[in-house]
Amino acid sequence: MQKITGIDIQEHDQSNRILKISLENDIIDKLIFPFNKFDLTALELKPFTRFTLAKSLDDLTDNKLSKLMNSIIRDRSTGCFIIGPKSITAKINDKFLVKLSTAIAHLIGIPNHDAMAGKYYARFHVKHEDTSDSYLRKAYRNMDLHTDGTYVKDVTDWLIMTKIDEQNVEGGETAMLHLDDWEHCEDLFNDPVGKRNFVWGSPKSKNIDYKVEHPVFSSDEKGRPTISYIDQFPEPQNMEQGIFLQRLSDGLEESKNKIITKLPVGFSVIANNYFWLHGRKPFKENKELSRELLRIRGSFFVN
Fold first, then answer.
1. Contact predicate 150/159, CB 8 Å
2. Which of 34, 114, 226, 282 is the most exposed, fewest CB within 10 Å of its CB?
3. Is the pTM of this model over 0.90?
4. 71: helix, strand or coil
5. What does the H/E/C string look like for 124-164?
């Protein structure tokens, strides 16, 4: 494993497919000044400022961090890493974490416009009470394994989820599954129903006024399975599609090869959206429960 000054790189304790990248205090300290140059409004309204943040981060690693992250995220055998500050100090607040996530994203590719939030990223809370129309904010329900971007026209190659804060939390662990570790992948991938177009919609909170059509399963350039699926948004048009989706859902949730892990506050998980699925376990009920997350998703740079 390559060494990068100011960065600690280890295999994740639950999967050799996932790397854990910890930024040493020295790197964090040196990011404070360039990050303070831009407030969040500037980042939201002037896209080029986001690349300035990304360059500040990469320059501190002699431009090795971007190479490492891209080599992981594009590699079928890995395709996922978590990254964040080795130590959480008073300097690391929510605005700093938005900027750090922005910098990381812009070393990988171009973020999509997030219609739910109206900008290139979305921040959302999970709390005790919820009246939303999506599993995203329902604390006490299992969020089943899924990929992102199933209901939009944008290419969604990757996603970033950052844990900005959490209080009074038990449970709510992140669930991850790599397609190549899924026991039922071959069976469902070879079912012709999964390779025909499905209709995909979305609830009102997503602010998407159209529907898209695409299959659940496709193939990469080497013929290996890729997936685009979330349980809440397909609109089966016949019994065949409905029963296929039920088999798919059951097969994913029953998998014994899911990775169940707790993402530390301040860390981001970055995953390839074609062969990694992600979800969340239910929280233990608590009226004071609070978690804030940030989401960015987008496409790879073409070069």
1. no
2. 282
3. yes
4. helix
5. EEEECCCCCCCHHHECCCCEEEECCCCCCCCCCCEEEEEEE
